[in-house]
Amino acid sequence: NIFFNTLFASFLPEGSVTYLYYGMRLIHFPLGIFGIALATAILPSMAVQAVNNAHQELKETLSFGLRLVFFITFPALVGLILLRIPIVHLLFQHGEFTYQATLGTAAAVMGYAVGLWAFGGVRIVVSTFYALQDTKTPVRVAILAVGANIILSLILMPSLKHAGLALAASLASILNLGLLIWHLQKRLGQVDWQRVLRSHGRVLIASAVLGVICWWTAHQGIWIMQGHWVHKTVLLGGGILGSVAVYTVLHLLMKSEEIFFLWRTVKARINVER
User: Fold this and answer.
1) Which residues fall within 8 angstroms of residue 96, CB to CB, at 6 or more apart?
2) What string of DSSP letters covers 55-86?
3) Which of 44, 96, 149, 194 is buried most deeply by CB count within 10 Å?
4) What is the Cα–Cα distance from 66 to 190, expressed in whole angstroms?
5) pTM score
């Protein structure tokens, strides 16, 4: 998908390829730290469960993986969309990287961020297929997703330019995730979607509050001014840290299983390092 996005972007106005490149780099940050790491971490457990034909436990691991990846990626999605201009401005707008380039990159970030949860979810579901020693189904579904990406790119590119290419990749990833889950349920049976939806509901509530902080941070007039880099760094850093703190507290109040799991994981890691 990245290859075809780059190819199509080469026919768009100058700078489009660069905007997509930097936009995807920002998406890879939360995806690489959490989404791919989580998928790698749960694969051994899934493999053992698959070998032992413990399909109920395998479905529970899959359910928890999807809940945890959504717990992490959805607030990141909200933050990236609302803070896209401040983040790009602070990181890249120096030298020949102009404010116009900031807006172009921010548009790419927004398009890619829409599918951040799906990018992470695909990693979890594909790991389940690998645990079942099925590598063919993910490849067949991926081919369909690439085809969908090409079609969507051709549809969205004329009106949305490079942002349409980023959005097409996100929509293709959502399709990829949906088809993978459909195939997996045919093989393993129904996943406990009520539990997943309850978890997602808590995430949406906490993300809405997080979004208010991000929106306030992004709408300060300083972002259209030159200089003031220290003030901008403090403002953006404070907005991100404040959002994370509020998101965490809300999940503690709602007694979310995911936040306590992450706390136990961090605590165990600290004890190991000691």
Assistant:
1) none
2) HHHHHHHHHHHHHHHHHHHHHHHHHHHHTHHH
3) 149
4) 14
5) 0.89
CA dihedral 92, 95, 96, 101 (to 10 degrees): 30
Q: How many CB atoms lie within 10 A of CB 98?
A: 12
Q: What end-to-end distance do the CA atoms of the chain give, in Å? A: 43
pLDDT in tens, 124-151: 899 889 888 899 999 999 999 999 999 9
* E strand spans, the chain: none
Who's near 205: CB < 8 A, 6+ residues apart? 250, 254
Paired tokens of 54: 């413990």
Torsion angle of alpha carbons 173, 177, 183, 184, nearest 10°? 150
Tokens for 61?
A: 């691991």
Report how far residue 229's alpha carbon sits from residue 139's, in angstroms, rounded to the nearest whole number. Answer: 46
* Local structure of residue 97 (DSSP, 8 states): -
Single-letter amino acid, residue 174: I
- At 104-116, the pLDDT tens digits run 999 999 999 999 9
User: Residue 224 to residues 65, 213, 238: CA-CA distances in angstroms?
Assistant: 40, 19, 19
Q: Is 273's pLDDT higher than 80?
A: no
259 closest CA partner among 272, 273, 249, 268: 249
Give CA separation, 77 vs 71, 152, 234, in Å.
11, 21, 21
